Amino acid sequence: MDRNRIRQMAYIFLGALLLVVTPYVIFAQNVLGPDSTPATPGDSWFDFWLFRLAINILGYATIFVPGALVVRYLKQTKYNETAGPGCLSNFAVLCVFGKEHEKPSLEEGGVSNKSSTVEESTVSRGVRLMFCFVGLQITYLTWGVLQERIMTHEYGKTETTPGEFFKNSTFLVFVNRILAFLISLIVIFFRKQPEHTAPLYKYSYSSFSNIMSSWFQYEALKFVSFPTQVLAKASKVIPVMLMGKVVSKKTYEYYEYFTAVLISVGVSMFLLTSGDVTRHRDTVTTFSGVVLLVGYMLFDSFTSNWQGELFTHYKMSSVQMMAGVNMFSCLLTTVALAEQGGFLESSGFMFRHPEFILHSVLLSICSAAGQLFIFYTISSFGPVTFVIIMTVRQGLAIFLSCMIYGHPVSIVGFLGIMFVFVALFLRIYANQRKRSLKQSQSKPSAPPASVISKI
Question: What pTM value is reported for the model?
Answer without folding.
Answer: 0.76
